[in-house]
Structure formats: C-alpha cells, structure tokens
Amino acid sequence: MKASSLLRKAALTAVVACGVACGEFDPEAARTISQGVYGLTEYVDDVCSSSCDPEPRSMDLSIRTPSDGELVASVKSDDDGFYEAELASGDYVICTSFERCTDFRVEPGQTVRLDYEMSVGPGWKK
C-alpha cells in the first residue's frame, strides 16, 4: 500500500474517532473524493417526546443516469450515515432503496453534497 494511502486512511480514522468522541460527525472532513456526490443519511423520529434530533442511519443508495436509468454506482452509507461516490461529470439521479429520488449534476472538479432525512420531512436536501 502506498504511503499516501496509509496517511489518508490514518487521517480518516482520526477524523472519525474525533467525530465519535466529540459527539459530531463532519462529512466535510471525512470526504475523500475530489469529484462526485457525498452526504449524510439520517432518521428523525417525528413523534419524539423532547427534541427531534437526527440520528445517523445506514442505507443503500443507487446512482443512475437520468436518460436511460443505467446503474452507475451503488453505495451504502456507514454507521455515521456517511456515503460518497466518485463520479464523472454529468447528470445523475440518486435514489434510496425505497425509491425516494432526486436529480443532481456534477461539474468537472466539483463535489455535490446531498443529505437524506428519513421521516415525514423533506427527504433529499440539496
């Protein structure tokens, strides 16, 4: 394994460890891609007794082309709800496993953040 790969993994491990220890996960710091889509998947209990804070939720996501629905990538968010997928420039549709979808565009050298909130709320947040 290359030294740069080892350093990247060590840095990511430190970020995740701090996120767990500090009580917050920072998807901006965890992102390793230079072009594509990334974000958080969360669950909000809409019948909570006090504050309704989002909780990380692991979920399967699919990324397709809008024109013919060709599968480009499948990703699963981790226990922190974080996911990312390196993508070429172009137009895409990202969907949850239960077919809540949104479209997005990746420009050259751009990362697009798309968060998903599972509840009665908005779903995808751009």
Compose a concise summary of this entry.
The protein is α+β, with helices and mostly antiparallel strands and 126 residues long. 19% of the residues lie in helices and 39% in strands. The protein contains 2 helices and 10 strands.
Task: Describe this protein's structure.
The protein has two helices and ten strands; from the N terminus they run H-H-E-E-E-E-E-E-E-E-E-E. The chain has helices at residues 3-22, 27-30; strands at 36-43, 55-56, 60-64, 71-76, 82-86, 90-96, 101-106, 111-113, 115-118, 123-125. The strands form two sheets. Strands 1, 2, 5, 8, 9 and 10 form a six-stranded mixed sheet that branches. A four-stranded antiparallel sheet has the order 4-3-6-7, with no helix packed on it. Strand 3 and strand 4 (71-76) form a beta hairpin.
Question: What brief labels describe this structure?
Answer:
2 helices; disordered N terminus; 126 residues; Immunoglobulin-like; 2 domains; single chain; 4-stranded antiparallel sheet; alpha+beta
